[in-house]
Design brief:
Blueprint (H helix, E strand, L loop, with lengths): L2 H25 L16 H4 L1 E8 L6 H17 L6 E5 L3 E7 L4 H9 L4 E5 L4 E6 L6 E5 L3 H6 L3 E4 L3 E11 L2 E10 L1 H13 L5 E5 L2 E4 L11 E5 L4 H14 L5 E9 L1 H54 L6 H30 L4 H33 L3 H33 L23 H26 L7 H4 L1 E7 L8 H12 L4 E5 L4 E6 L4 H15 L6 E6 L1 H30 L2 H25 L5 H30 L7 H33 L2 H23 L1 H9 L9
Helix pairs in contact: 1-8, 1-11, 3-7, 8-9, 8-11, 8-19, 9-10, 9-11, 9-19, 10-11, 10-16, 10-18, 11-18, 12-17, 14-15, 16-17, 16-18, 17-18, 17-20, 17-21, 18-19, 18-20, 19-20
């Protein structure tokens, strides 16, 4: 097989795989559309619905109590027909409930949080069998009297306070296994149960949970010791379910609402549409830039990037990752970052062509020499994503998941898919130097010589941020514009009809009239909406305010997004934010120290990223941008991005030290390394900037609040990698001698 034929085979296989990936991501496979974008699970902020975090009133509940409580909430959610909901534990005494598509938010909150009730009542004359379940054949009962009549007749034998416990069990008789439920009563229930079972041998006793008859065993003999066995044609699962139901009904646990979030489905749909538009525009800009700047290699990168996007969609579907608004931002951001590896490779290829090597040799060396920078840069960003996933929750965890997935897929597509396509294009005839662009020509520039100027600029910006924080503390009472996640309270985002445009003063008065509370009101003019922030409101107060807005302004309840967080959770959020950034920084420092075998590299990289974090904090302070749940995601993304850019420079310094000429000083090496990586830093910052800028221009306010400081972080990360890190390394090298010198 000659080279041209081999090239056509490569390109044909690429088109086949690309078409398969594209088809799967758009339409899916099979009746369930496996792998399609349509089948991706959407989070509450995209699909609309209710999210609640409950905490037990009891300080130290047992694992069994917590699991039973989770089961109780799961059962109530299922009984309401909300089968897509998720109910899961958080820590030792909290339970989260996420219900996509829930419309009556306040009713959902009130229903889920109430304590379950269980009663044992006399079955004779109070219940009757009305049929059998189709699947199990178990009898189905109904009440013959009202609950008030049963109570008035004194036919309630026990309630939840009389029950000590209930456990599934079994016994064997004639080699046949019988599944049972063993019931244990407290002292308060022994006498009552003994009296009832003695007087009603041969009659049924109905077990009623939350108004539903779950079982009606017949009394076989008087039970006077506070213990009983409930038997029947149970399977092991049915016995376990009945035991859990009895325990749940008897639980002493009360739940209090710590945090709730209600999102209208229409708001979620708007977020999806605008974010997808932003993503499409950003991707097109990246495609055009890569093709113009790197020509044939850029086309190969564009084809690989298209496959990357399709693989991302398929993985989100198959891995059943719940996509949130922050997760969507993470995907769009990761697309911009995915270009980075290709930029590093193509810059290397152009350099090799520039020194007179053949195209074939240059392509081979380009991938080989770029590997260490790509590997180290992506691993450090992946560390930030892992820390974010472990220490975050909710939307932050969703962002971390998509970012980590994006990093893994970008490495695969850059190092394998792009290489495969590029060799195919080369073999079919694109083998001339002109097909791969020209090396960017930069004059030698003494970057390190101007270190004092860069330091002055950085210190000035950081001081402006400090002044902004001081002004915020003086004028607003807080150094940053903390959102609910960081200070607690209740917030509503209300979208008004086109004909209604209330003023801030009018809305403040409306809140005061409805619930007699002061509110901080901000208008979102481009969306004809407003945010109303108050202290933490009760369920009744929230319901009253919602009804008032619907009645007074004709607002649709589906257009109201609501969030309520207690002070306890907000205090934890602040600690988690600081801890997450600290842990990520330490982990990355250790990794860089290990990979570069010298503390000077690690220390200067960490100082540079702290510089970037402080400057982004200045943007938050001066711009009074809300510091909320996505703040942690933003900061850790900037940390990962900054380290990624810095490592490219350090990788080149490490390489140049090994190839050092006798006459070269370390100052010369740093300047040369910065010049050699200058185009990569500029182009990577530019392509990532395209993606984030599209979010700012076309995204909804929640995305914009995330994207604006991220844009500042991208600019700052590029600046620090060029102007700060090399100078820091040069200064710290004197204190931490290089192993390469030995």
């Amino acid at each position: 097989m000659n080279h041209k034929t081999k090239g056509f085979v490569r390109l044909f296989l690429t088109l086949v795989v690309g078409a398969a990936v594209l088809f799967t991501s758009l339409w899916g496979i099979g009746a369930k559309k496996k792998g399609s974008a349509e089948g991706i699970r959407l989070g509450l902020d995209l699909a609309g619905g209710v999210s609640i975090t409950y905490e037990t009133v009891k300080e130290d509940p047992t694992d069994e109590e917590m699991e039973d409580t989770r089961y109780k909430l799961r059962k109530r959610v299922d009984d309401s027909g909300m089968t897509e909901a998720e109910v899961y534990r958080e820590g030792d005494n909290r339970i989260n409930v996420d219900i996509p598509g829930a419309t009556d938010a306040e009713a959902t909150l009130k229903e889920l949080g109430r304590v379950g009730e269980i009663f044992f009542i006399l079955g004779t004359d109070n219940i009757e069998m009305i049929g059998q379940e189709e699947e199990t054949g178990a009898p189905v009962y109904a009440f013959t009297k009202s609950w008030e009549e049963i109570k008035a007749a004194g036919d309630i034998i026990l309630d939840g306070t009389d029950i000590q416990g209930a456990d599934p069990g079994w016994y064997q008789e004639y080699n046949i296994t019988h599944n049972i439920v063993s019931l244990t009563l407290k002292e308060t229930g022994k006498a009552k149960f003994a009296t009832a079972t003695t007087a009603h041998v041969g009659e049924p006793i109905a077990i009623v949970y939350d108004g539903e008859i779950v079982s009606a065993p017949v009394v076989q003999e008087p039970l006077v010791d506070g213990k009983a066995q409930i038997s029947g044609n149970f399977t092991a699962e049915e016995a376990s379910s009945l035991a859990t139901t009895i325990r749940v009904g008897a639980l002493p646990l009360e739940l209090k609402e710590l945090r709730s979030n209600v999102v209208g489905a229409n708001l979620g749909a708007e977020a999806i549409n605008t974010s997808l538009m932003a993503g499409l525009i950003g991707v097109i800009l990246v495609f055009v830039f890569m093709a113009i700047r790197y020509r044939v290699a850029g086309v190969a990168a564009d084809m690989a990037l298209a496959i990357y996007i399709g693989l991302m969609v398929i993985c989100l579907n198959l891995l059943e990752i719940t996509l949130t608004l922050s997760g969507l931002a993470g995907i769009i951001l990761s697309i911009g970052m995915a270009v980075d590896a290709n930029v590093i490779i193509f810059s290397r290829i152009q350099e090799e062509i520039g020194v007179g090597k053949t195209v074939a040799t240059s392509v081979k060396l380009g991938f080989s020499k770029a590997f260490s920078a790509i590997f180290d840069g992506n691993i450090t960003t992946l560390i930030a994503a892992i820390v974010l996933y472990i220490m975050g929750s909710g939307t932050v965890k969703g962002f971390a998941t998509t970012l980590a997935l994006g990093i893994i897929l970008s490495m695969f597509t850059a190092l394998f898919v792009t290489r495969f396509i590029l060799y195919g294009l080369y073999e079919v005839g694109f083998d001339k130097e002109k097909h791969y662009g020209q090396v960017a020509k930069y004059k030698e520039f003494a970057f390190v010589k101007h270190g004092k100027k860069y330091a002055f600029i950085s210190i000035a910006v950081i001081l402006i941020g400090v002044a902004g924080m001081a002004f915020g503390k003086f004028s607003k009472g807080e150094i940053l514009a903390y959102g609910l996640d960081f200070k607690g309270g209740t917030a509503m985002t209300v979208k008004f009809p086109e004909t209604v445009e209330p003023s801030i003063a009018e809305l403040e008065k409306a809140v005061k009239t409805a619930i007699n509370e002061d509110a901080v009101v901000n208008l979102v003019n481009d969306e004809n909406a407003a945010t109303l922030k108050t202290t933490e409101l009760s369920e009744d107060e929230r319901n009253t305010l919602v009804n008032y807005l619907v009645t007074t302004y004709g607002v649709s309840e589906a257009e109201i997004e609501m969030q309520s967080i207690s002070g306890t959770v907000s205090g934890e959020m602040k600690k988690d934010a600081i801890l997450a950034v600290t842990v990520a920084t330490v982990c990355m420092l250790i990794y860089i120290w290990f990979r570069f075998s010298n503390l000077a590299f690690a220390a200067s990289a960490v100082i540079a990223l702290l510089h970037d974090v402080l400057i982004v904090l200045a943007v938050y302070a001066v711009g009074r941008i809300g510091v909320g749940n996505t703040f942690i995601a933003c900061m850790l993304t900037i940390v990962g991005y900054s380290i990624n850019a810095t490592i490219v420079v350090f990788d080149r310094i490490r390489e140049n030290i090994k190839e050092r000429l006798k006459k070269e000083t370390y100052l010369d090496i740093v300047n040369k390394s910065i010049v050699q990586t200058f185009s990569r830093n500029i182009y990577t910052s530019l392509t990532t900037f395209f993606m984030v800028a599209a979010l700012v221009i076309f995204g909804v306010s929640a995305i914009r609040e995330f994207a604006i400081p991220l844009m500042a972080g991208i600019i700052c990360g590029g600046y620090s990698s060029i102007c700060i890190t090399g100078l820091l390394w040069l200064k710290l090298r004197e204190k931490f001698p290089e192993e390469e010198e030995e």
